[in-house]
Design a protein that fits this description.
single chain; mainly beta; globular
C-alpha cells in the first residue's frame, strides 16, 4: 500500500467546510454530505451541486462501491511518491451515488482493467497523528 512517509508527502489541511470529513477519517468513518432535498455528494461544499440548497448534513457512507475508472501512475509527480510507483489512482462510484477519487490498493496495477465495475471497499491508512486517508481495495 502506498504510504505517506513522515516529512516526505503532502498532508491534507482541513478547512471549515472539509473539517467534518477529516474528523470522520480520524475515526475511520467515510463521511458524505447530504442536502435537505436528499442529494448525497462528495467532495465537501457549501451548497448542494444539484439543487443549490445550503441545508447540509453529514452522513456516514457504507465504504462500499465499484471501480468506475483508473489510471496507473508509473512516473511520480513528486520525489515524495517515487517509492510508491506504480500505483493506481481510481474513480470509485460509491454505493450512495457520488463518485470519489482515491487510491486502489491491494491489487496488481497491470491487472486492474479486470476490476472495472467490480466491488471495492474502503481501507484506512493512518498517515499522521489524527489523520487517516481512505483508500479502496477489491472485495
Amino acid at each position: 500500500m502506498p504510504k505517506y512517509r513522515k516529512g516526505t508527502g503532502p498532508i491534507p489541511r482541513p478547512t471549515p467546510v472539509t473539517q467534518p470529513f477529516w474528523d470522520g477519517t480520524r475515526e475511520h468513518r467515510l463521511m458524505l454530505q447530504k442536502c435537505g432535498n436528499g442529494h448525497v455528494f462528495y467532495y465537501a461544499r457549501t451548497h448542494c451541486p444539484v439543487c443549490l440548497s445550503n441545508e447540509l448534513d453529514w452522513v456516514e457512507a457504507s465504504g462500499r462501491g465499484r471501480l468506475y475508472s483508473y489510471t496507473v501512475v508509473r512516473r511520480p509527480q513528486s520525489e515524495a511518491f517515487a517509492e510508491d510507483c506504480p500505483y493506481v489512482v481510481a474513480a470509485i462510484t460509491l454505493d450512495e451515488g457520488p463518485r470519489m477519487t482515491s487510491l486502489l490498493v491491494e491489487c496488481d496495477p497491470d491487472g486492474v482493467q479486470e476490476l472495472i465495475d467490480r466491488p471495492v471497499e474502503v481501507v484506512w491508512d493512518d498517515v499522521a497523528e489524527g489523520l487517516a486517508m481512505p483508500y479502496f481495495r477489491p472485495v
